[in-house]
Design a protein that fits this description.
This protein is an alpha/beta fold and 720 residues long. It folds into 3 domains: 327 residues, TIM Barrel (Alpha-Beta Barrel), CATH 3.20.20; 215 residues, 3-Layer(aba) Sandwich (Rossmann fold), CATH 3.40.50; 127 residues, Immunoglobulin-like. Helix content is 28%, strand content 17%. Strands 9-14-13-12-10-11 form a 6-stranded mixed β-sheet, sandwiched between helices. Strands 18-17-22-23 form a 4-stranded antiparallel β-sheet, with no helix packed on it. A hairpin with a 2-residue loop joins strand 6 and strand 7. Helix 1 packs across helix 12 and helix 2 packs across helix 12.
Length: 720
């Protein structure tokens, strides 16, 4: 009679099955299942599995896939539904590729279904090189977009995960990159709970994210991948997280090599495992054999980690009859298919932010143009389309190519690289500024000049990435590098109408350009179809609708020290100076009017919600999208400025109206105290409803002042 194997019984829960399977493993087998390169256990029918895969804005590093706009560009859409559609498309392609890889026994790195995305760290300082992997500087926006991205990755099947998402890097992580392996991020409990944790909490409690990745740094003296506070007290006990925790790659060896909180590899793996880090991206967990032998780790602690890991693989359907797992029918023809390319193009259009449009220079009318000049180091730069953690697109359309394709044979396009992205000359043997005469010639020949400048992921990225030019991936300041500013001034001096397009993953300091150039667009790293989308926006095929998910400061001189994790004078929520372009700001080619705005009640009552209602009408001449934004200001000393607490994206045809309702739960009015408790203070609260922040700069730039109403709380209440 054949032995009953509970782990193969699909009628049992995944956890029951995982416990049975792990009970059959030897100590050595269990230890090696905690490495990201988990080997096969043939006698138990366990296949080899590589946990490391990336899907920040498309399936990454494993060949062809749809390459969407970088995460910061997706954030600029302020569109929760779009984020879920993009992530659903990513997991469809992930499954399609996985199914083929399994068919041919390819279990290499980047070939699994455990995607280490999204990155929901707060982009607290614009100099941070990895900020373009995030959803920006605001905890609420990052929470909403992170939740919907996870929903799209993991799917809505009642039994199986489509793929497993991972919220990273937990927690308090945003540079500097070059000292991240030894850095101690010191943060108050108030800032921890008010700023650095909300997006992770939402990912765990609302989106039921399957995995959380620890950060490289220490937070308040504890290395994040071995932090009792983060991994036990908060993640497991406070938030009741049931999934698995993975280390960042080779982070655990930093415990003894760089953080110096342990003395040996054995002590480091014991600290990580005992703190609840289940999976090791790296190979140091091999030392668990010695740690268990020497009594530093109990075998039951290891068992719990492996049970969590096996449970995830079972949720993905990897131990079940293939016919019973619905995602096994997804075929390779879904990879980078026409439908996905169309969504990619739409995402790129939606991510574009119109920063300035003096005298409605934009959109350009191609019927009134004979010649167009395109100048700048990012005009034909593929790297500036995609950002980092990227896949390989089957087609890349740069801004130059997009403009040429759009204008066809009717309009002559002149092009000059203008200058190198960051060096003083383009040609190695040339003199400084060796494209200057060509720039002047292109300006002379053109009816309008489009400049494409900014950064690329070689200038802002992750420590250790090949090609980083500045400070291990971080930016030394917010200025345009190299000779870019000089070339822009040269274009301006030509007297021709100038439009600037900036491709970057972060805020740039461009006060001169704001003062002198009539039209400015922020295009981020807009994905493989980005040049096509930007051309369509430039020539009026699509009205820009993006909003800034980060503040554009006037200068980096006003920022606190990069290593200072105190939120004072950081981001729109705490900054004291006026922004060049504020968070939440972005113009359109059409116009939207809000009317019949109401905020119900006069008091905030614990356990109930405040209902904000507004009617929005497209009073312009073309279709477009707009984001209704609700901010809350606690009128109390030491409170943040005002904070985004509600948003809704709407799309309207000319003359079309829609009534929008946004509910604010009592938590939207709470502030965290120095003990990390959420308090509803006895105070007045101002609620703002509009299409931008209520700051004077936003009102000046948009000509629109948000509606406001003051509510009150009579008695202080502890909400958590």
């Amino acid at each position: 009679m054949q032995e009953y194997k509970a782990y193969l019984d699909e009628n049992l829960s995944f956890e029951e099955r995982a416990k049975d399977l792990v009970s059959r493993m030897t100590l050595e087998e269990k230890v090696f299942q905690t490495l990201y390169t988990a080997p096969a256990i043939k006698r138990l029918g366990v296949k080899a599995y590589n946990w490391w895969n990336e899907a920040l804005h498309g399936v990454a590093r494993a060949g062809v896939a749809t390459v969407f706009p970088q995460a910061i560009g997706l954030a600029a859409t302020f569109d929760e539904e779009l984020l879920e559609k993009v992530a659903d498309t990513i997991s469809t392609e992930g499954r399609a590729k996985f199914n083929v890889q399994q068919k041919y026994n390819d279990t290499d790195i980047y070939k699994g279904l455990t995607f280490w995305s999204p990155n929901v760290n707060i982009f607290r300082d614009p100099r941070w090189g990895r900020g373009h992997e995030t959803y920006g500087e605001d905890p609420y926006l990052s929470s909403r977009l992170g939740v919907r991205f996870i929903n799209g990755i993991q799917g809505h099947d009642k039994k199986y995960l489509k793929a497993a998402a991972c919220a990273k890097h937990f927690a308090v992580h945003s540079g500097p990159e070059d000292i991240r392996h030894s850095f101690n991020a010191v943060v108050s409990k108030q800032d921890l709970y008010e700023t650095y944790l909300p997006a992770f909490k939402a990912c765990v409690q609302e989106a039921d994210v399957e995995s959380v990745m620890g950060a490289y740094n220490r937070t308040n003296d504890e290395p994040c991948c071995g932090s009792k506070l983060l991994l036990k007290d908060i993640l497991r006990d406070e938030w009741n997280f049931k999934g698995h925790v993975t280390s960042d790659c080779w982070a655990i060896k930093d415990f003894h090599e760089n953080h110096k909180v342990t003395s040996t590899a054995e002590e480091s793996v014991a600290l990580a495992m005992n703190s609840g880090c289940d999976l090791n991206c790296g190979n140091i967990y091999g030392h668990l054999l010695y740690a268990i032998r020497d009594g530093l780790v109990e075998e039951k602690t290891l068992d719990q980690a492996v049970i969590r890991l096996v449970t995830t693989r079972m949720k993905l359907g990897l131990f079940d009859n293939p016919d019973n797992v619905p995602f096994n029918t997804i075929t390779y023809d879904k990879v980078d298919c026409k439908k996905h390319q169309e969504l990619n193009l739409l995402s790129a259009r939606k991510s574009v932010v119109l920063l300035k449009n003096e005298n409605q220079l934009l959109p350009l009318n191609k019927n009134k143009l004979k010649t167009v000049g395109v100048i700048g180091p990012n005009a034909n730069n593929r790297k500036a389309l995609v950002g980092n953690y990227e896949g390989t697109a089957s087609e890349y359309i740069t801004v130059l190519e997009g403009i040429k394709e759009y204008l066809g044979e009717d309009v002559r396009v002149y092009y000059s690289e203008g200058c190198h992205l960051f060096k003083e000359k383009v040609q190695g043997l040339g003199a400084k500024n060796d494209r200057l005469s060509e720039v002047r010639a292109v300006c002379d020949m053109s009816d309008v000049v489009i400049g494409v400048f900014g950064l690329d992921p070689g200038l802002e990225g992750e420590e250790g990435d090949q090609g980083n030019e500045f400070a291990s991936g971080d930016k030394p300041d917010l200025n345009l590098p190299g000779l870019q500013g000089d070339i822009i001034k040269e274009m301006y001096k030509s007297g021709k109408p100038v439009v600037l397009v900036f491709l970057s993953g972060s805020a740039l300091s461009i006060p001169w350009e704001d003062e002198h150039i009539p039209a400015i667009i922020q295009g981020w790293y807009p994905g493989a179809q980005g040049g096509r989308a930007i051309a369509e926006v430039l020539f009026g095929e699509y009205s820009p609708e993006g909003k800034l998910p980060v503040t554009f400061y006037r200068t980096s001189e006003e920022l606190p020290e990069f290593t200072d994790y105190n939120m004072e004078n950081r981001t729109y929520r705490y900054m004291k100076n006026e922004a060049l372009y504020p968070f939440g700001y972005g113009l359109s080619y059409t116009d939207f009017t809000l009317s019949n705005i109401s905020v119900n009640g006069d008091k905030i009552i614990p356990g109930s919600s405040i209902i904000c209602t507004a009617e929005i009408e497209n009073t312009g001449k073309i279709a477009g999208g707009e984001t209704i934004q609700v901010y809350v200001k606690v009128k109390k000393d030491g409170a943040p400025n005002w904070q985004l607490k509600g948003l809704k994206k709407v799309y309207l045809q000319p003359g079309e109206k829609e009534t929008v309702t946004i509910n604010l739960e009592d938590e939207a009015f709470g502030l965290y105290n120095n003990e990390g408790k959420l308090v509803l203070h006895a105070a007045e609260y101002e609620v703002y409803v509009g299409v931008c922040q209520p700051d004077s700069r936003s009102i000046q730039l948009t000509g629109k002042k948000p509606y406001s109403k003051v509510l009150r709380v009579d008695e202080e209440v502890l909400l958590s």
